[in-house]
Write a structure and sequence with these properties.
By secondary structure, the chain is mainly alpha-helical. Helices cover 62% and strands 0% of the residues. It has helices spanning 3-14, 16-25, 36-41, 46-57. Helix 1 crosses helix 2 (16-25). The longest helix is centred in the first third of the chain and has 12 residues, at 3-14.
């Protein structure tokens, strides 16, 4: 998954205004105590970050 696709999915899931805020502010244990932005900056694969996010917030399977 490319970063552009990742951010498109974030926007679809959270809306344009909240996606960025969630990514910067919400610390997730599934990402080793990092935020989405921190995990991506640390070199995590966007696909793995998306999977962790989906698991953490129970995104329906058809939207994963």
């Amino acid at each position: 998954m490319r970063l552009t696709e990742f951010w498109e999915r974030m926007t679809e899931q959270f809306g344009a205004g909240y996606a960025d805020s969630f990514a910067r502010d919400h610390v997730m244990s599934q990402l080793g105590g990092r935020t989405v932005c921190e995990a991506l900056d640390a070199g995590w694969d966007p696909k793995e970050v998306w999977r962790a996010l989906c698991s953490a917030i129970d995104v329906p399977h058809h939207l994963r």
